Amino acid sequence: MEALHLRADHNTIKTILSTINQLSKTGKKVEILDNLIYDKEKEMVLTGLIQQKEHNTFSHNEVWEQLLK
What is the pLDDT of residue 10? Predict the structure, then answer.
């Protein structure tokens, strides 16, 4: 899936969101990431990369074992 980063005034954003809503109603796959979600996902990816570099990771089984306690 491709990404588009958009900056526009409020009325333009409303028009674009209306169009996106119509597309999604017809079955088109659309995902919207606002700044908050984008920044959080970016932070999570960077944290994961740092943890991996420092060998501070856990196996799938270790995570499930802790979750099931």
Answer: 93
Cβ-contact 45, 57 below 8 angstroms? no
- Measured distance CA(29)–CA(26) in Å, rounded: 9
Predicted structure pTM score: 0.50
Residues 25 and 52 in one domain: no
| Residue 32 and residue 20 in contact, taking contact as beta carbons nearer than 8 Å | yes
Neighbour-count burial of 16, counting CB atoms closer than 10 A to its CB (0-12 exposed, 13-18 middle, 19+ buried): middle
Write the pLDDT tens digit of every residue in 29-51. Answer: 988 888 888 899 999 999 999 99
What single-letter DSSP state applies at residue 16?
H
* Count of structural domains, the chain: 2
Same domain, yes or no: 39 and 67: yes
